[in-house]
Specification:
- The protein is an alpha+beta fold and 961 residues long.
- It contains 17 helices and 49 strands.
- The protein has five domains: 156 residues, Glycoside hydrolase 38, N terminal domain (7-stranded beta/alpha barrel, Alpha-Beta Barrel), CATH 3.20.110.10; 96 residues, no CATH class; 120 residues, Golgi alpha-mannosidase II (Immunoglobulin-like, Sandwich), CATH 2.60.40; 296 residues, Golgi alpha-mannosidase II, domain 4 (Beta-galactosidase, Chain A, domain 5), CATH 2.70.98.30; 101 residues, Immunoglobulin-like (Sandwich), CATH 2.60.40.1360.
- One of its GO terms (molecular function) is mannosyl-oligosaccharide 1,3-1,6-alpha-mannosidase activity.
Length: 961
């Protein structure tokens, strides 16, 4: 009898508490081929909501574990439970050295199409690549992976071939239970083969793969015996009576299946695209679309991405700092090195907690509230450890006095208290916290606008590296109250300043006490007062009344027109190209169809109109003028509209001499659904209605896992639930003249259901279960901060005109004219990366150690091509000492692609490595090109200049320092 095991997180849990005798027995089963490790990732990840960094990281963690403990490398992928399949995971499996993959949950219409064309296997090609693929993918032909649905097309028959019989257990399969005896052996064998023959008719090679299992199976020894004994009786009978069956049946593994298929076929069809949105029909007898989980529980989706960023930063700083200390070979650094090594065990746990959350019932939000809370506490624990590691590593790199390396000198400016709460800014005092270290974890120079919370408004910021004062402003800390009044704090202020940091660099900024009223923002507000402890003290800010009429925000590049009644954007005028566009931001909600919309499914109640969710938080359709606040300063200008407590909406533009920041509109939404039953059956969206002509049948583009991009065309005959697609970093609509891109920092659903419209789902509350496995509704909504960039960009005039897809000619054009592969602009890709990986700021706390020396700056890369993204710089665990780091690491590189059809102010960066490319202050002892997860070595290289990547490609290199 043969078995497979896919998720290494659970295998590791068993392994760590098992006797060495059992461990050896397991290794023997693997060596004999009786237990096959399929996929080998830390979990079976979701493929819609996961981001590329976390996907790669959990594959590395799982594959390294498998190789280290079992001595094998996975060969076949097994992904039979994610709710739809994308093209990213097959690409990553191919890059990891796997030969094949098996998928399950795709739209029932696709299942039918594959069956009609006798296709079960295909080569899944990346949409951006035209090279010959190597990964062969098998689609399981029926609805689900249980025995009831795998032996053939008739569940009523297949259920009788499930021989599990546990005393005291009663279910549909125990009711049909019938052991194989001499009396029924022939008839049961014949019935089973008839079902197998029907599966075989769905393909030209006539090889059949039939999984024999289900959720929560084989936990009792008697089930092993029952399944094995009964099936072996039928297998022996079938194999013996070739004159009756002309077939050979045996237990096997997916690897055996692919070998048999390849022996019979030497060519396979190719496929480009993905299998979203997934829809089942077997549960209710009518289509149900699994597009709700793209958005479900956005709070934890956002927290997970921020955890991902902090883990990546911790990995980079640990790798740099530990090897810097090791190579310095100085006795004074021994205690510093030992302190860092203590963090490594926590770093391993953090990797595994991030990997665990990529599970298809975790990041999707499709577990019970108590289970989601457990995930959240794991994430927060590891997030805390990652930030402490960052502080310790940067201390060793930026503080020359090694005696201070074991003390808590650096403090992250952001504090994460507990799951369910929003992060809180550290209050910086210019008395004992005068220095701030800013670290850039990207391998390209960047300019960012940072915000620190201060106890004084008399501050200016000095760049110690470039020896100059940087643009800054003092922004009021405004508290909104439910009586529609605003108070401006007299003790807390936001210091906003412009930081320019090199690739993989840390720069020190000094906060100096200085009175300059021109740095203080002007506040436009009809209902604001300063909350002063001393009434005689003069105001810190100039407060002016709002002028009548619509509102304008302006910088050097654009002018925004904001609706006075709603406080939302209406129009954008690009001054540099003299182009005006309608950009109408709206908020609304779909009424959930009870028991048909839940954690997994999205289904609006079509008998109910869209909900005006803001009306209960405003005075009719006209905003109270006191609910709008404008804050204008030399660095940024913003307008905030408050519908307390449900929504706080902010638009911000920057007066910064930076080609990316000055062209983008930053959008922040703080959403609070309040406690249930308020806002029940509410699916909240932010909608952007424009005058962009993206087709009579609308089309738009979505990213996939922050890695690649997919064109989406509205399915006219289907509802909005079938036209919502997952995004992880961005979506855009365009015509021949203009492109509008919305950039996000987390996974959510997006749609373009009407011409000129782009909308994203923000949050969902459904009181009832949708009967797909959770067993409860989704009512544990948390106050959540949503961050977006909005870009309006011109398309070059020499770009070929876009084919307008009319309903009449839609099919003809799709068949005869291959669609161009669209990419984001350079500006969009850059802003997306900075949103996902913001600079980290750490305050130097001198309250206990006095005034200390801090390096002005520290860079770790020289002449590194800015057109290549360092996805990961991940220390490899020592081969002998399990919880200790080695001097080697995996450097995972990604070369993003950009569109050349968008007029952008940013220069296209080089992706070429040269002889000048190196790690500053670190000697590379050896360098080799390896498979994505590092299990296979391809080529030993002499230096970094030998590295090369094609556009969109991901590669891994092993470095020994």
């Amino acid at each position: 009898m043969t078995f497979i095991w896919t998720e290494i997180s659970f295998l590791n849990a068993w392994w760590e508490r098992s006797h060495p005798v059992k461990q050896k027995a397991l290794k023997r089963l693997v060596k004999e081929g009786r237990l096959e490790i399929t996929t080998g990732g830390w979990v079976m990840p979701d493929e819609a909501c996961t981001h590329i960094y976390a996907l790669v990281d959990q594959f590395i963690e799982g594959h390294v574990w498998v190789k280290a403990n079992l001595g094998v490398a996975p060969k076949i992928g097994w992904s039979i439970d994610p709710f739809g399949h994308g093209a990213t995971v097959p690409y990553l499996l191919d890059k990891s050295g796997l030969e094949g993959a098996i998928i399950q949950r795709i739209h029932y219409a696709w299942k039918e199409w594959f069956a009609q064309h006798q296709i079960e296997e295909f080569l899944w090609m990346p949409t951006f690549d035209s090279e010959t693929p190597t990964l062969l993918v098998h689609n399981q032909p029926f609805d689900i992976y249980s025995i009831k649905s795998t032996c053939g097309p008739h569940p009523a028959i297949c259920i009788s071939f499930d021989f599990r019989k546990i005393p005291g257990e009663y279910s549909e399969y125990t009711a049909k239970h019938e052991v194989i005896t001499e009396n029924n052996l022939q008839s049961k064998s014949k019935t089973l083969m008839e079902e197998y023959d029907r599966i075989g008719s769905l393909t030209t090679h006539n090889v059949v793969l039939v999984p024999l299992g289900d959720d929560f199976r084989y936990e009792y020894g008697i089930e092993f015996d029952a399944q094995y004994v009964n099936y072996m009786k039928m297998f022996n009978y079938i194999n013996k009576h070739t004159e009756l069956f002309d077939a050979e049946v045996s237990f096997g593994t997916p690897l055996d299946y692919f070998k048999a298929v390849k022996e019979r076929l030497d060519s396979f069809p190719t496929l480009r695209g993905d299998f979203f949105v997934y829809s089942d029909i077997f549960s209710e007898g009518k289509p149900a679309y699994w597009s709700g989980y793209y958005t479900t529980r956005p709070y934890i989706k956002i927290v997970a991405r921020q955890f991902e960023h902090h883990l990546r930063t911790a990995e980079i700083l640990f790798t740099l700092a530990s090897n810097f200390l090791r190579q310095s070979n100085k006795h004074m650094f021994e205690s510093s090195e030992r302190k860092l090594e203590k963090f490594y065990e926590q770093l391993i746990t953090a990797r595994r907690n991030l990997g665990l959350f990529q599970h298809h019932d975790a990041i999707t939000g499709t577990s019970k509230a108590s289970v989601m809370y457990d995930y959240g506490t794991k994430i927060f624990t590891s997030l805390y450890h990652c930030i402490r590691l960052q502080e310790a590593a940067l201390t060793t790199l930026m503080i020359p006095d090694s005696n201070l390396h074991t003390q808590s000198v650096l403090q992250s400016e952001l504090e994460w208290e507990t799951y369910g709460k929003l992060p809180r800014k550290l209050l910086v005092s210019t008395i004992d916290k005068k220095k701030v270290i800013v670290f850039n974890s990207l391998a390209q120079k960047r300019t960012e606008v940072l915000t620190l919370r201060s106890n004084t408004s008399n501050v200016r910021v000095y760049d110690t590296s470039n020896k100059k004062y940087v643009p800054s402003q003092v922004t009021p800390n405004i508290q909104a109250h439910e009586d529609a009044k605003f108070s401006i704090s007299d003790t807390n202020f936001d210091i906003v300043f412009v930081a320019t940091v090199g690739p993989f660099s840390a720069v020190t900024y000094n906060l100096e006490e200085y009175t300059n009223h021109s740095q203080r923002c002007v506040v436009f507000c009809n209902n604001c007062t300063e909350d002063k402890s001393d009434p005689e003290k003069p105001n810190n800010f100039v407060i002016k009344k709002m002028m009548p009429g619509d509102i304008q925000l302006e910088n050097k590049i654009m002018k925004l027109l904001v609706d006075r009644n709603t406080g939302f954007l209406r129009q954008v005028y690009r001054k540099d190209i003299r182009k005006k566009n309608i950009i109408d931001i709206q908020f609304g909600a779909y009424q959930s169809a009870q028991r048909h919309s839940g954690a997994y499914l999205f289904m609006p109640d079509y008998e109910s109109p869209e909900k005006d969710v803001l009306s209960q938080y405003s005075k009719g359709n006209v905003m109270d003028e006191g609910n709008v606040v404008i804050v204008s300063g030399p660095v940024s200008t913003e307008i905030t509209t408050i519908y307390l407590p449900f929504l706080v909406h902010t638009l911000r533009i920057f007066n910064v001499d930076d080609p990316a920041l000055s062209h983008g509109i930053f959008i922040e939404n703080i959403v609070d659904f309040e406690n249930p039953p308020k806002n029940r059956e509410t699916e909240l969206f932010m909608r952007i209605q424009t005058n962009i002509q993206n087709g009579e049948t609308p089309e738009f583009y979505t990213d996939q896992n922050g890695f690649q991009y997919q064109r989406r065309v509205k399915m006219d005959k289907l509802g909005i639930e079938a036209n919502y697609y997952p995004i992880t970093t961005m979506a855009w609509i365009q015509d021949d003249i203009t492109r509008l891109t919305l950039i996000t920092n987390h996974a959510q659903g997006a749609a373009a259901y009407e011409p000129g419209r782009l909308e994203v789902m923000l949050d969902r509350r459904t009181l009832y279960d949708d009967f797909r496995g959770v067993g409860e509704g989704v009512v544990d909504n948390k106050p959540t901060v949503f961050s977006n960039w909005l870009l309006l960009e011109p398309i070059t005039s020499d770009r070929p005109k876009r084919e307008t897809v009319s309903r009449k000619h839609k099919k003809k054009i799709k068949r005869n004219k291959p669609t161009k592969y669209e990419l984001p602009s350079r500006t969009a890709e850059y802003l997306s990366r900075t949103l996902s990986y913001p600079v980290n700021a750490y305050v130097v706390d001198t309250s206990e150690v006095g005034d200390i020396e801090v390096k002005e700056q520290q860079g770790f890369l020289e002449e590194f091509p800015p057109g290549v993204h360092v996805l990961a710089l991940r220390t490899i665990t020592d081969e002998v000492l399990e919880q200790f780091p080695s001097s080697s690491c995996f450097m995972v590189l990604q070369r993003p692609g950009w569109s050349c059809d968008i007029e952008v102010p940013m220069a296209m960066p080089s992706a070429n490595f040269t002889s000048k490319t190196k790690f500053k202050g670190l000697a590379v002892q050896s360098l080799s090109s390896v498979s994505l997860t590092g299990l296979k070595t391809y080529k030993n290289l002499t230096g970094l200049e030998e590295i090369s990547l094609k556009p969109m490609e991901i590669k891994t290199y092993r470095i020994r320092f």
